[in-house]
Each structure stands twice: as C-alpha cells, then as structure tokens.
C-alpha cells in the first residue's frame, strides 16, 4: 500500500500527520473482514457498500488508524467508482448522506444457546471541504472488532475485484464465495478436515432462505424467476467477468420448490498463480512432509 503523509488544515489535528490511501497500487490492496460481517445483512445499496469496502482496504492491522480514522482523496474515490461527469461532487455528497442516514449492517453472532443481533452504522463521521481533495472517514468503534481483531474466522479478498461489480448483490455474493473458497484453500493445505468437507467449501450449498436473508431480499423478488435473475444470474455474470473467480450453480429442489443453491467455485489461473497445485495431491503430501 502506498502511504502518503500530509497535514490537514481543516481538522482539529492539524499538527498530526495523517495517512492518505492511494489507488495507485489498487492491484495489491486487500480487504480483510471477520466472517460474521461477511454473512451479515448489508442494509444499504451498492455505493455506500463500496465506499465502506474501499475504506476498509486502507486499514493497516499492524499500524492501526488513530481514532479509527483513515483518509481518502476525492480523486481516488471517483477513480474507484469510475465517475468523471460534472455532477460527481453532488453525487458524492448524496452518497455520503445516504450512507450515514440509512446504511447499516445487521450482524448475527452465535452467543451461548442462541444468537446476538447487532445493528451498526459503520461510518458515522465523514468530513471534507469544497476546496481540498481529502476526505476524512471515521469508523464506528463498534465495527472495528470485525475489521482488526482477526485471529480466526476472517476472510481476505482483493479490492481490485470489486471495482467493476455494479450491483449490491454482486458484492455480497462475491464476499460470500470468497469466504468459502478461502476456507477451501486453507484446509486443503493445512489439513484438519475430511476430503468431502474440504470440497464442500469449494462447492458450498446455501439455502434460498439464507440467500434471501444475506442479500436482504426476503420481501423482494417474490417469484423465484425474478430472484434468480437479479440475485444469481446477473451478479454471477459480473463476478465471472471481473473477478478472480469463475462460478456456476445448480438448483436443488425439495418437493416442487427450489430449496437451495449449490455454487461451484473455480479460481482463474494467473501468470504467477500456483493455485492449481491445491488439487495436486502429490504436491500437497510433499509440502506436508517438508
């Protein structure tokens, strides 16, 4: 991550140097989130969700941001959203206002014999001026444990994979599939799971009820055909075209109704990618011996 330190005359900490997140190295930047946040319900549309993801990519867990605050430049933010029209500043203001007034996560965690439900507005404070390029983003302290306390049950994925995803459902599905595939990669190397359990991470089965909950479509697209088009087909076309995954799916019936979806996740081969060796048993056995 490129780090640029500057002083900002428009805030109360003008004597402190701040870190500005640069998109020049977007290909190298990663996002890391706790799995409970990955499976939470994002009560927001695409733009606030992408702003949140971009901001999270600027967190350095080895050098935590002071006061839960990071800085972006408006120019870089517009580049991330590929916005270059004359109304971009007013659109940015509208997106920020909407994010702070209506956008929140509903997080469901297993606690004792039941579940704990928590609603969190992730970014309550955003500050900028009309004469400066910098945007101050301060995270809610209650969201920070899901972004920095990541000793286990977390998922890492590339910020660059999100750039061309143009629907909320594409982003949510991509994160969910990344969570499963990350576990597949982990257990096939480290062991600790039976072969069928490992394969289940690469071919996860998710009930329609759970998909509707996670995508916040419990009360939308009542006809399955509409749900399939908007929440499965179109998002997966985007994911296959613009991310590191190729994903197909099959519908599983229970009686006459579609009960669940089984996703089949394959990772695209890159020039410097050795992921094909994950399926090479001889390679894995040799690695384990070493």
Give an overview in words.
- By secondary structure, this protein is an alpha+beta fold.
- It is 37% helix and 26% strand.
- It is built from 10 helices and 13 strands.
- The chain has helices spanning 35-38, 46-56, 74-81, 88-102, 145-148, 168-190, 195-202, 208-214, 224-242, 281-289, and strands spanning 3-6, 18-21, 30-34, 41-43, 69-73, 104-111, 114-120, 125-128, 134-138, 154-158, 205-207, 245-254, 257-267.
- The protein has a 5-stranded mixed β-sheet.
- Helix 6 (168-190) packs antiparallel against helix 7 and helix 6 crosses helix 9 (224-242).
CATH architectural name of the largest domain: Orthogonal Bundle
- Low-pLDDT segments: 1-17
Count of DSSP H/I helices? 10
List the quaternary state of the chains.
single chain
What overall form do the CA principal axes indicate? globular
Overall average pLDDT = 84
Distance between the termini: 32 Å
Helix content: 25-40%
Q: Class of the largest domain in CATH?
A: Mainly Alpha
Classify the beta-strand content into a percent band.
25-35%
Radius of gyration: 20 Å
Order of helices and strands: EEEHEHEHHEEEEHEHHEHHEEH
Task: Kindly give the count of domains.
Answer: 2
For the biggest β-sheet, the strand order reads 1-2-5-9-8
Structural class: alpha+beta
Strand and helix map with partners:
Elements: E1 3-6, E2 18-21, E3 30-34, H1 35-38, E4 41-43, H2 46-56, E5 69-73, H3 74-81, H4 88-102, E6 104-111, E7 114-120, E8 125-128, E9 134-138, H5 145-148, E10 154-158, H6 168-190, H7 195-202, E11 205-207, H8 208-214, H9 224-242, E12 245-254, E13 257-267, H10 281-289
Parallel strand pairs: 2-5
Antiparallel strand pairs: 1-2, 3-10, 4-6, 5-9, 6-7, 8-9, 11-13, 12-13
Helix pairs in contact: 6-7, 6-9
């Amino acid at each position: 991550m490129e780090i640029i330190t500057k002083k900002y005359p428009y805030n109360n900490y003008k004597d402190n140097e701040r870190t500005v997140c640069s998109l020049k190295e977007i290909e190298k930047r990663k996002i890391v989130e706790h799995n409970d946040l990955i499976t939470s319900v994002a009560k927001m549309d695409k733009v606030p969700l992408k702003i949140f993801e971009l901001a999270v990519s600027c967190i350095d867990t080895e050098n935590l941001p002071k006061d839960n605050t990071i800085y972006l430049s408006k120019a870089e933010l517009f580049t991330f959203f590929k916005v270059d029209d004359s109304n971009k500043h007013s659109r940015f203001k509208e997106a920020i206002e909407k994010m702070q007034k209506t956008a929140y996560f509903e997080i469901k965690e297993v606690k004792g014999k039941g579940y704990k439900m928590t609603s969190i507005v992730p970014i309550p404070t955003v500050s900028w001026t009309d004469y400066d390029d910098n945007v101050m983003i301060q995270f809610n302290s209650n969201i920070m444990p899901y972004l920095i306390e990541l000793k286990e049950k977390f998922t890492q994925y590339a910020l660059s994979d999100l750039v061309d995803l143009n629907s909320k459902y594409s982003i949510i599905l991509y994160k969910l599939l990344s969570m499963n595939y990350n576990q597949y990669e982990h257990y096939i190397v480290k062991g600790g799971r039976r072969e069928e359990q490992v394969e289940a991470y690469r071919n996860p089965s998710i009930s329609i009820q759970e998909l509707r909950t996670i995508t916040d479509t419990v009360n939308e697209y009542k006809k399955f055909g509409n749900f399939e088009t908007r929440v499965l087909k179109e998002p997966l076309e985007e994911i296959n075209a613009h991310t590191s995954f190729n994903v197909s799916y099959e519908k599983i019936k229970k009686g006459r109704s579609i009960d669940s979806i089984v996703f089949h996740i394959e990772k695209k081969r890159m020039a410097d990618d050795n992921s094909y060796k994950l399926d090479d048993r001889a390679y894995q056995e040799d690695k384990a011996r070493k």
